[in-house]
Amino acid sequence: MPIYEYQCPECGEEFEKLVRSMSAADEVSCPACKSNKVKRKMSLVASKGGDCSTCSTSCSPGSI
Ligand SMILES: [Zn+2]
Question: Which of 4, 40, 41, 47 is most buried by a 10 A CB count?
């Protein structure tokens, strides 16, 4: 599941949200001020630590 980064234009809060679907991604609200005008940033951090092609020891595929 992807984790999206959001920024709230109302208070400047930045946060990450794990979303299960595109509709859920559009229903995110700011955890600080509850604004629903948050903007989803383009960066996707779901792949962090998930590339096991370069890791031969500690991480196991499928653990994410
Ligand atoms: Zn906010």
Answer: 4
Domain residue spans of the chain = 3-47
- Convert the pLDDT of each residue in 3-60 to its tens digit: 889 999 999 999 999 888 888 888 899 999 999 999 998 655 555 555 545 444 555 5
Residue 41 Cα to ligand 1 middle (Å): 15
- Distance between Cα 40 and ligand 1 center (Å): 13
Ligand 1: centre distance to CA 17 (Å): 14
Three-state DSSP at 5 gives strand
Cα angle vertex 32, ends 42, 46, to 5°? 30
